[in-house]
Fold these 4 entries.
Entry 1:
Amino acid sequence: MLPDFATTAQQTYPTQATHFNELLSNGQLSHLYLFVGSSQSTRLAFSRYLAWQVVGATDRNALRINENEHPDVHLVAPKEEGATLKVAQVRDLTPEFVTTTLESPKKVFILDAVETMTASAANSLLKFIEEPAGPQLILLLTNNLQDVLPTIQSRAQIVHLNPEISLVDTNDIDDSWQKNTQMLLFKWFELMMQRKIEAFAYVQTTLISQITTDLQQKMFMKWLRELARDMVVYSATADENLRFPSLIGFYKTLAKHYHVRQLVHAAEAIFADDKLRKINISLQARLEKMALEVTIALGE
């Protein structure tokens, strides 16, 4: 079973979770990121999730990261709400910054609320950022980019963590509708992933008449994102961690026909729907565009 921080990260930031997993698998992860997110709990969850992927996504590592006991993962935050991140807290990390890992490919440092960091604390941190002792990943977290010192901003890759989905209460949706709609979704997903022209007509002839309320639409899109996630991560996680494990045979078939890069890009085309939803484009237009973008991604 996935740890809570991993579930939160994958549900709240599915696109970023997929993107960073791809960077990690391709050896393209930078050593310094500045994560900007309004929710402290979800940005911490995402950072722990990334740290878990770096040091090894095992149950034992998840437990140690969750309890701040992993020897290669270090989390620092203000000691109480409204307090600042002090220079002494950064200097306390000196032995960890200047030594190599104990059991992992990289050391991971997570510093929350860096917008509260004093100039002296920032200067201490910059010394370690500019001269890392070994393989390191430094994750700086903030809820307000404008308050982060320019010397920090200029050295980090800035990533805005914007929640991509809202959790939906399935108790408010009829069970028979859920079962029927999932079957229709699976069929449409199969048509898309096979790059069949029928995927476009299926939107108008079948899906639109089935999805008639905002709540149903949210549920449908949530399932679709979970399908895309399963398709990308199924080989790297246990079956019980998948949302739709009954489709693992289909995921394996896709893996034989496409490169992982193509599947990741197809998943990103699905996750990109959230931007279209925010500018008030109809569901039919969004799904048809998605089918086109997935077809293009799989043909690259």
Entry 2:
Amino acid sequence: MTEQKRVILVTGANKGIGFEVVKKFLQESSSKTNNNDVILLGSRNIKRGEDAIQQLGCPSNVHLLQLDTSSKENILINNAGIVPREDSIEAAKSTLATNYYGVKMVNEHLIPLLHENGRVINVASTVGSMGLYICSKELQKRYTSSTLTIEELDHLVEDFLSAFESHNLEHMGYPSELPFKAYSVSKAALIALTRIEAREYSHKKNISIYAVCPGFCATDLNNNAAGARSASLGADSILYMINTPTNELENGGFYRDGEKLSQICDDDAAVRAYIEHSKKLVEKIQ
């Protein structure tokens, strides 16, 4: 049985006890048949961190992380995401674990470290808003409720996965024509999560939280699809949310290229075009 990969962060690891802790992790790892540990060597000074890794023999699973625990960060960008390559419950669970639960967990742990007036960018997608457009009115109402809680949103996601596994999605209100079902739900849930977090954290150090769609960009997620915009252009959409004064933005809002979008897409033609395009894209990805 393969051991689960561990990501181990050791702060102050360029010398002293922290350095010795990293050394011992490496010694333990060398005795294991399957070593999946990734060690982040935290150091305030980059040069000293690099020297420490040199002393360790430059092991491939040790990575330098410049980190000053006495300072707090101003901006957090949740960009990690995946698209399932198969229509299985395992792939669906993995997609929601990364695109929804993973972002939620990161925010729970890192938002408290942000400065007053900090910002959080959750990278979402119009796939979520277009997916909601063709879902049942009841699901639309639940995902967009102004009083939705994280616990209730978790239940929505859990119910989706349960229905996915039991092949009961249509009964739940998710139509068969919904493309990339797990990915679509993960992004709809992320947009909803952004609104909830904005309500919660705006009263705590005045943190602003936004969902941003970078657009359909040519990346590994879609095998660098022909006709897609560049990843550089997608990054501009994210940078806009970082550089624009908060009084010009709606906290908890969903944006693309500086334009505020609806949580549920209201462009029927765009949704129908997306469905047809997705059918072709699925053939290329699989």
Entry 3:
Amino acid sequence: MSMSTTEVAKKEMITKPEQGTKGSYIRDKFMQYFLGPIIAFILFVALWQVIPLIIGMPHYIFPKPTDVVNAAISDGSLLWEAVKVTVLESVIGFVLSGVIGIVTSIILASSKIIERSIYPYAIILQTLPVVAVAPIVVIWFGAGFNSIVVVSFLIGFFPVISNTLMGLNSVDKNMDELFSLYNASKWQKMWKLRIPSAMPFIMAGLKVSCTLSIVGAIVGEYVAGVGGGEGGLGYAITVSAIQVNTSFIFACAIAGAILGVSFYLLVSLISNKILGSWHESAVKNEK
């Protein structure tokens, strides 16, 4: 049976407000989250372009945004190859730091004696300057890819182990007593209570580690980078500094920043998918 004219009119009246509400919702979200950063970015780039012109500063001292863009375009193939190498090194270093950091944290959290014996050395490892550790890594693993991955791993390792261990030791006391009441073993508590409860802490550590892995890879490339198409952003920056190609240095630095932001957004997306709607942080992000 066909719908009557009155039913069609009612349906249109219901649909139009919904469409208007959706449009206003998108507009409000854009105004709230994106408009401010976009305006700030435009003002920053405009000032960056104008100030060197007013001061009369040469491009090899402080390049303008147009100089940076031209350098990125003219040496685009070199920049792209450097980005690919750095991405590969960073991803491997991040995965190693995540896996080894989480496994180490579980082992430390399983015994207070082990935690008190080993965790202080993890803190000491974090306090060592990377510049001092990197040459030793090069001696042990040789110059090139392996050493850079190890440096990236070392920088990203501590945030994972620190946050994960904190989460594993922050289990709700009532839930722990409930598991004990049902005679749950130590490892049953670990897999079914402590690790799920620590997931927000684990994801927070991974968010920090993913950005630090980029920094570690670039720092490693300064010390252990090699040329011949195998050099990453750190090696490209080193060569450009020798050539006083400041515009390309800025282009490499911006590329590294974009990589760091992209890594962070990707891990944040995975975090929201894993936490879903059961944790407060994910629920707040969805609102």
Entry 4:
Amino acid sequence: MNLFDSDDNSGVGPGFRMRRLEVYNWGTFDGAVWNFELGGHTSLLTGEIGSGKSTLVDAILTLLIPQPKINYNKAADAGSKERSLNSYVRGYYAKRSNESGEEEPVALRDKNKYSVILAVFCDAETNSFVTLAQVFYFTPGSDKPTRFFVVAEKALSIKQDFGGFGNNITDLKKRLKRIPYVELFNDYTSYAVRFKSLFGIEQENALDLFQQTVSMKKVNGITDFVRKNMLGDVDMGEMNDNIQRLLTRFHDLKNIHDAILRDREKMELLEPIAKASDVYDQCLKEEA
């Protein structure tokens, strides 16, 4: 759905924009590939409470933001420990009491399953495609998911490129490496360097700002939000000095402007005298 429909429905904004989002075994999106076609347009995601809106937002955040900086619960306005990467990969959807009377999460999936999140971006002007993907799985004896990262300079899909290999992650990696223009990474840092280069992201805080804006529920004060998330760390003393210098220069410019206006008014008052003088001089010449 294009939020800002125009007469030209085929037109999209400049730069890389998300063309498609796919998730497999992510949160409560279980057992199938869920495909969301955005077409590069500005889109509106709506749904009932608990329908998975924040789950999809968190999939996008996971693709772009380093794990230590992600606050999954912010988008959902949930408790501090309700959502985590592990809860999304396992598909926690409820809680129940165990034999000791303690609550434990109920999962849609066991640790033998794997999960994939994938997004395809397109620059319509250059017809360039970039796919970002992450694959999550559990190694024997581990309670936390392991993952690897994928960057491709072409459009991939979960069904075609990440399925049909059983549960052998090594086989999946080998198959992906054989696909032209596909790169695999074992750490976020290398992965981020690559996709930032492709997207032309130069500012270090660009993705931090993206996370803040995409997952916020409300902004109590736009001034504080901009100062904190866009201006970065600011020396308030230095800022106040700069403001005072600007005010001084503004007052100086205003005084000059006012002086010019006063002189202009004086010149306008003298114009009739100058014209009368010209007429008088002309009369003297005619009499002579």
